[in-house]
Write a structure and sequence with these properties.
This protein has 189 residues and is α+β, with helices and mostly antiparallel strands. It is built from four helices and ten strands; from the N terminus they run βαβαβββαββαβββ. The strands form three sheets. It has a five-stranded antiparallel β-sheet with strand order 6-2-1-9-10. The chain has a three-stranded antiparallel β-sheet with strand order 4-5-7, covered by helices on one side. The protein is globular.
Length: 189
């Protein structure tokens, strides 16, 4: 019996308009290049770990942090590819003070409760992005980059909440979701 991989992540989901734009881009790439797109909801990952050891402590820490955060906007610019064994086609998110501060604060409050997946979520290494294609074939990746290379790919994204998601194998489950500045919202069950 094989065990399924587990990953947990703190993410900033995209606002509805930006979500729809990314989904439309994914569908367009599927139609024009044959690239299959991820079924994961478009988002910006703030932190990821194999597991958070004390989930209630993580939720309490996030609750305290998020009471002090106000919504803000970020922008994407251009197109990027993360290379390696599992390439990813992305829309890089431009660094901004509010986004960097949020990611650094999330990292600070959740890191004591986990073994991080990699150093890429440490504030000095973190590069924010929105995934367009996850693990495309070499042919689909090449066709997609060629298809989008001359297109202006700019989104103006409202960031106003975070979620704590758990992935077991290929299935995702939301464990917690909270709007910035809200009080009393409970974890998802």
């Amino acid at each position: 019996m094989s065990s399924k991989s587990i990953m947990m992540s703190v993410i900033a989901p995209l606002d509805d308009r930006s979500y729809e734009q990314v989904e439309a881009l994914r569908m367009e790439l599927n139609k024009e290049t044959g690239a299959t797109y991820t079924t994961v909801q478009p988002h910006i990952t703030l932190h990821a770990a194999e597991n958070y050891w004390n989930l209630s402590a993580v939720i309490d820490a996030l609750d305290s942090l998020l009471r002090t955060i106000s919504p803000f906007r970020v922008r994407t610019a251009s197109l990027g590819v993360y290379t390696g064994d599992l390439p990813v086609l992305v829309l890089p998110v431009l660094q901004s003070s509010p986004l960097s501060s949020l990611q650094s604060a999330v990292n600070r409050v959740v890191s004591p409760h986990c073994q991080p997946l990699s150093h890429t979520y440490e504030p000095n290494y973190w590069l924010p992005y929105v995934t367009v294609l996850h693990k495309p074939s070499p042919t689909a990746l090449g066709k997609s980059v060629e298809y989008l290379a001359w297109r202006k790919l700019e989104l103006n994204i409202s960031i106003n909440r975070i979620r704590l998601d758990q992935r077991i194998g290929s299935e995702f489950r939301t464990l917690y979701e909270r709007q910035f500045g809200s009080v009393g919202m409970s974890p998802k069950g």
